[in-house]
Amino acid sequence: MAANGNGAGADFITVGTGDAARRIAVALQPAASGNALAHLVWLGGYRSDMSGTKAVELAALAGRIGTAAIRFDYSGHGISGGAFVEGTISRWLEESLAVIDHAATVLGTRRVVLVGSSMGGWIALRAVAELAKRKDIDIAGLVLIAPAPDFTSELIEPNLTEAERTALAERGQFEEPTPYGPDPNIYTLALIEDGRKNRVLDGAIETGCPVHILQGMADPDVPYAHAVRLMEHLSGDDVVLTMIRDGDHRLSRPQDIAKILETAEVFARLA
């Protein structure tokens, strides 16, 4: 199941049942014959999709080193079905695990490197915890790019204005302008309440694998202090934090992407 750069070659899987069923777009790029490197899994950020620069560059890296790449769009994102406003961390986590299971069936994926950007870093940490209970997928490493674990409770809730609190209470959501596109970000009460159930910064985080965090110090969305705090919760693991002094939230400049790909390749090649 090969995919091109924009995800147009994607197939679809159904996640959930009944009214909660949604069609999730998945692009699987198979490994070269006989290649035993860990497969690369892309976990995108809030309102991003698998056609973004970093996701496409990760798939290109997989092609160069001969391993598999797994990309997909969360429900309400990209070309997947489902309404964005129905999205929660639990819902997108469920979809992420379903895609990994789908890759295990189609590609034989059993060892993976999870590469999570922004919200995808939070989902990567939650996915590791869930996969550890099953023991059928081995995590070779985590690459966390400007990770935003617990962003709903740590970065949004404390900074809500009275108008936003009123909108949440009366309409169940509020909108916020974003520099990344013409449409505002939408944050729902369901997302915020579900975020509390998925907190990871409330105790030790045991991943059982090496972790590399890449964080821009000029990030306007996720303060670099947030990455430092995450490091403190990962104290029992092999963790590296790379601070990029002039890096923004996206970390999509060529020099940023080079660092991301270098880390992903190192983890993919770990025995």
Topology (SSEs and partners):
Blueprint: E1 11-15, E2 22-29, E3 39-43, H1 53-65, E4 69-72, H2 89-107, E5 111-117, H3 119-134, E6 138-145, H4 151-156, H5 162-171, E7 173-176, E8 185-188, H6 189-197, E9 211-216, H7 224-233, E10 239-244, H8 254-268
Parallel strand pairs: 3-4, 3-5, 5-6, 6-9, 9-10
Antiparallel strand pairs: 1-2, 2-4, 7-8
Helix pairs in contact: 1-8, 2-3
Describe this structure in words.
The chain has helices at 53-65, 89-107, 119-134, 151-156, 162-171, 189-197, 224-233, 254-268; strands at residues 11-15, 22-29, 39-43, 69-72, 111-117, 138-145, 173-176, 185-188, 211-216, 239-244. The protein is α/β, with parallel strands linked by helices. The chain has an 8-stranded mixed sheet, with helices on both faces. Strands 7-8 form a two-stranded antiparallel sheet. Helix 1 (53-65) links the parallel strand 3 and strand 4 (69-72). The longest helix has 19 residues, at 89-107.
